Amino acid sequence: MLVYLKIYRYNPEAGRNVPSFDTYNIEAEPTDRVLDLLEHIKGEIDGTISFRRSCAHGVCGSDAMRINGRNLLACKALVKDVGNEITVEPILGLPVLKDMIVDMEPFFDSYKSIMPFLVNEDVPADGKERRQSPEQRERFDDTTKCILCAACTTSCPVFWADDQYVGPAAMVNAHRFIFDSRDQAADKRLEILADHGGAFRCRTAFNCTEACPREIHVTQAIAEVKNAITSGGVEY
Amino acid sequence: MTQTHQHEVVIVGAGGAGLMAALYASRSADTAVLSKLYPTRSHTGAAQGGIGAALANLEPDKVEWHSFDTVKGSDYLGDQDAIDYMCAQAPEVVYELEHMGLPFSRNPDGTIAQRRFGGHTNNETKQPVLRSCYAADRTGHMILQTLYQNCIKNKVHFYDEFHVLDLLMKDGVANGVVAVELATGELHVFHAKSVVFATGGHGRIWELTSNAYAYTGDGVAITLRRGLPAQDLEFFQFHPTGILKLGILITEGVRGEGGILVNGKGERFMERYAPTVKDLASRDVVSRSIYLEIRDGNGINGDRYVHLDMRPEVVNKYAELDGRTLPDGSPYRVTGEQLLSKVPDIVDFCRTYLGIDPIKEPMPIQPTAHYAMGGIPTNVHGQALSDAQGTIVPGLFAAGEVACVSVHGANRLGTNSLLDLVVFGKEAGKKAAEHAKSSDYKPLEANPTDFTRQQLDRILNNTGGEKIVHVAEEMKTKMMDDVGVFRTADGMASAIEKMRELRERYKNISIDDHGKRFNTDLLNAWELGCLLDVALATAVSAHARPESRGAHAREDFPNRNDAEWLKHTMTWLDGDQVRLDYKPVTITKYEPKERVY
Amino acid sequence: MIMASKASVKPSFETTAWRFMRYSGILLIPLAWFHVYLQDVIVGVHAIDIDYVAVRLADTGWVIYNFLLLGFAFAHGMYGLRQVMFDLVHKESTRRVLSILMLIFWLVVTAIGATALAMGARPELVQ
Amino acid sequence: MAAPSTPLKNTVKGYATYMGREGHYAFLLHRLTGLGVLLFLTIHILDTATVYFYPSLYEHAIELYRATPFMLGEIGLLFAVIYHGVNGLRIAVTDMWMPKRWAIEKQRKAVRLTLVVAILLWTPGALVMLYNLLLHNFGVDLLAMLPFGK
Lengths: 236, 597, 127, 150
Ligand SMILES: Cc1cc2nc3c(=O)[nH]c(=O)nc-3n(C[C@H](O)[C@H](O)[C@H](O)COP(=O)(O)OP(=O)(O)OC[C@H]3O[C@@H](n4cnc5c(N)ncnc54)[C@H](O)[C@@H]3O)c2cc1C
Ligand code: HEM
Ligand code: SF4
Ligand code: F3S
Ligand code: FES
Prior knowledge:
Strand content of chain C: under 5%
Distance between the termini of chain D: 74 Å
CATH architecture of chain D: Up-down Bundle
Largest sheet of chain D: none
CATH superfamily of chain D: Fumarate reductase/succinate dehydrogenase, transmembrane subunit
Number of domains of chain D: 1
Largest interface: A-B, 59 and 62 residues
CATH topology of chain D: 3 helical TM bundles of succinate and fumarate reductases
Oligomer: heterotetramer
Order of helices and strands of chain C: HHHH
Number of strands of chain C: 0
Radius of gyration of chain C: 20 Å
Shape of chain C: elongated
Largest sheet of chain C: none
Number of strands of chain D: 0
Distance between the termini of chain C: 81 Å
Bound molecules: flavin-adenine dinucleotide, protoporphyrin IX containing FE, iron/sulfur cluster, FE3-S4 cluster, FE2/S2 (inorganic) cluster
């Protein structure tokens, strides 16, 4: 089928310092990924188009883009699902550096701000694993799936407006530790998220959950964090 | 403007191996990690099934059995001292990962959950054993995340999106690397006492692959260009179950949970090829069986694929036929719900890319290029070697898929790669720090970026009109056809010719992007150069081995030839000339014997 | 088998405000809805004049009702406005200044409204 | 150098062009109605306060409320208060007591439901207000025009 593709371009180095669109009409299969189309155009038509990608099957988090107005991974968006008129833009709210490539540093800084690592220095005397029941493990299973693609954070109206908001991705990762029965720093993380720019900036707009390619219940995770704060903590 | 940085240890690659090395090296030495991708984008994150360790959490298992299975899986080409070391370390590193926070799936008693995987057996009963420690079907993702998180905790210094293009050496000693910063296009020189390569594999040489775009063999190509050898390149694993046409991996864990392979006639054909463990034979065996079925016209509708079936009714039917039981002795039964919770991502892949629900329909699969057993030769300490005699290259280390220790020999067992990453990543990190502490910075050459500039300028200034994708396409199809699952002398000879021709044409590659900032066009071209180098070296190494062993299956030499070929290939690339040498395999306990599953 | 652990978090201003928004919101459903329905629909603006107001404000029940409405609705709305302001203004100092201005505005308007409620209407002063 | 953009531009662009689902529009409508009600409330507090401070002004004020544009505005206000309330209830209840309902299918349904409920609650009031508007400002008595009217 014929696909009409509109691609966002910005590259001050090459004189394109005002964002604009390039358009292409190309032949595609309904099962092609949008990433395949971009690769095709880059390979055959215009090598200057720039975007990040690696795994090509939705597990590395490189290629979150705004496709037809909504955040998707280009490698998980099939032509048959997005239609044959496709507009591709960079994700919103992070500085655009070139075409679809945005500056991810602010995003990773937020991630780092919530202490994204297990805090627990006690290990069993026999050196073996700390025990955790399947139920306790299940408690935070959903939020371990995050691939830090930023689709959620850059779909959030509060994040667009307020770059001091940690954003849903950081909270998903905080949730992963707060509700891990092995972790001992839940209160510190909750304190960080109880502050300005934390969980209470979330207006439950729900774009994050809709955007998450890993189908994480992002808003739910944030709500659980909020409730953990207001109820004074979590019990395992 | 070239910037120069100095760090005692420079680690190239931020996958499982690189991060583990970083955690250990940074404990005592000033360490920097360079990665062309953001660390969490590394391909370790794609690994699904699990990490092997004889924890014996649910049923009897022993480190010795794990060792033997690995030796056997390697078709006796693995070095047994290294294998023993890795398998003995396995429980310890798995516990270490748990202590770092890795959220393993759990057994009812709270211990780490384990599942079956191809080639892992109870040596007494010969039956598959529960050895693969897993976190649903995203074990690699959890390893990568956990290691990265611990690097943040320990304040490891990262240079993200720095693409390394050259290794610097002075008088045979490694003393740094040259990298281009993607954001600015500037070259940076990293002056180091120890350099650790952990750049992953090179599956992008083949048409159909489970590997990421980034898997372009940079590490092997860079060292080859610096006159160092690569080892065992002819051994490249084809995983039996890749999604039809896309190559996306369906983990062996699906078969571990009871899924079976079915041909066009509806037969469970693995019964014929591996009567004991059937669908859980090692990967080379299963991939070849699928090819043979397809060749005999037994593909689905006579086409070039077969089905992997994990519908609960099918799983239960065959589990009953096999008499499979749970650890408590009751018959093994599953529901769709349970399968979904054990392999959720697989279900998602099938729904997204195939539009089918694997709980209700069988999955169309075909073998996919998956894992490089070969790579930069190292010893058990991750120290890179420069010849068949085991001479160490001072200051140079390698770990992970880019390295060849060799623990996987001619064929890797599932779950052993993740294990390899952590065990040898750790070892390489420790040794790199030790080396850094006991030596001085070797002065850099006068113009350390010359070689790199030359490579880049050639691409940038070329107007030959050859396109990256065209050359790449031809390389991939040729390698798939002639240096794939089955090989013949003629096919490989023609592949060698083709690679030489493509390397000539590569000199005429021209690109559209002449800018500095995020010039991915330029880097794609550079990466293609690496792929071509590794492809040529692979084809020559393969052509020179007239036997079938592990992943290297020859139609004209269907048998293993231990008398003459129980040895590792060492390959050097000097311009267009490929030179080969051979190195003996270390054999300690297990004498080679015939391999039946 | 597992160490139970309970984290403790001191309530911050943001948390208290968040809860206030939710509880006051729920309270406002009867308060605001009934008020608006009563005055705009059942009575209607054409039937309202200062004498009507005077009668209402002479009734303690209605005065309490109006006090609650004033207190909760305006506080709720002004805090909501502050959230919106935070979306538009990112400089810490400007945020502080505007927050203070909003606080003053809130106090002044509430005081004016409260005075009127407390003192009642003065239809006798209409010229 | 990054593409010229400011948070404000991003926000406006995002509000206007992000193809969010139900939740996105519920957020926008909640915000809009909240601000609308606040604006009205502020004016309302001040004008009502005149009954004590400047009683003579009050009649002026109430006269204004009786003007056609104002009465139409009030019909809108009624919707705003009702929608904002119903939607606020959805948010508060889900967030505080049933976070598990923050699931895609459930929320898409819940958001649609809030709109339906709000419209149902609003319609009778809106009709009465419309009737009053026509009656008082245009002398049209809708009820009288009905065949079974008075
Ligand atoms: C789909 C899939 C499933 C798998 N499942 C399993 C499994 O279940 N069990 C198992 O044991 N193994 C599995 N494997 C194999 C295993 O995951 C990989 O072999 C392993 O992750 C490789 O890790 P690594 O650290 O060597 O490389 P990677 O994790 O790929 O890291 C490579 C790093 O090097 C960097 N890099 C590369 N080139 C450069 C350069 N030129 N300059 C700078 N940086 C560079 C990259 O940015 C990246 O950070 C699987 C592999 C695949 C593809
Ligand atoms: C009728 C009952 C009401 C309920 C149940 C209610 C509920 C809520 C809730 C729960 C919020 C918080 C939303 C969030 O944090 O995402 C909110 C925000 C808000 N409310 Fe109300 N409210 C009501 C009445 C009012 C009234 C009468 C006003 C006007 C004075 C008002 C003005 C606002 C404003 C301005 C916001 C901020 C909107 C935003 O941040 O986007 N609300 N309301
Ligand atoms: S929560 Fe989902 S959308 Fe957000 S970063 Fe993680 S994977 Fe991406
Ligand atoms: S989109 Fe934003 S407002 Fe909350 S629910 Fe998601 S973080
Ligand atoms: S390329 Fe990895 S997520 Fe799309």
